[in-house]
Specification:
alpha/beta; single chain; 3-stranded mixed β-sheet
Amino acid sequence: MMVYSTLLKTCVLAASVWLTACASSPQAIQIAPQFTAPSARIGNNSPVHVRVSDQRQNKVLGSRGGTYRETSVVTLANDLSLAVEKPLAKHMAAMGYDTDSLRADTADLHVIFESLVYNHPKEDGVGYDMDMLAVVNVMASRGNERYEGRYRVKRKQKFFNAPSESHNAELVNGLVVEVLNSMFEDPKLVGFLRKN
C-alpha cells in the first residue's frame, strides 16, 4: 500500500509539472527603451519637437505559446507612447537636436507605432521560436513642408527554452530601439530635420 501511495504521489507530481510546462502564464512587459550614446552629433542644433503615438490595431504583442496559447498572451504594462516619447527626445538631444525649442521654424516629428509583435508561432519544431516585428510611420513637418517615412524591423529568434519574463522585456525593448534607430539611417529624414 505504501508503494502504491508513493507511486501515486509521483504520478501526480509529474502530471502537474507537465501541465505547468504546457501552460504559460500571461506576461505584461514594461516598455523602457535604452538607447546607446550616439557616435556623432548629427543634429546641428536643429529644432525638433518629438511626439509619439500608439496606433496599433492590436494591443496584444502575441502569445508565449503552450497548450493554452490564447490566454498566455504578451501585452504591455505601460503606455507605449509615453514610455517612448521622453527617451526618444533625450536621445535626439544627445544627437545634437534642440528638442526643447520654441522657435517658429521647429520641425514636428510625429512617430506613429503601427505594429509591435512578439509572438511564438503555432508550429511545433526544435527549439523555441519567437517572431518579432516593429513598424513605425513617421510624419515630419515644418511650415508647409512635409516628409513621411515608414520603418520596419522583422526577425525571428530561436531559443533552446522559452525566454524568461526579464528576457522577453529585454527583447521587446531592443526591438523598439532598433526600429527607432532605423529612422536615423534614412538620409532624407535626417536631411529634412536638419534643414535650417
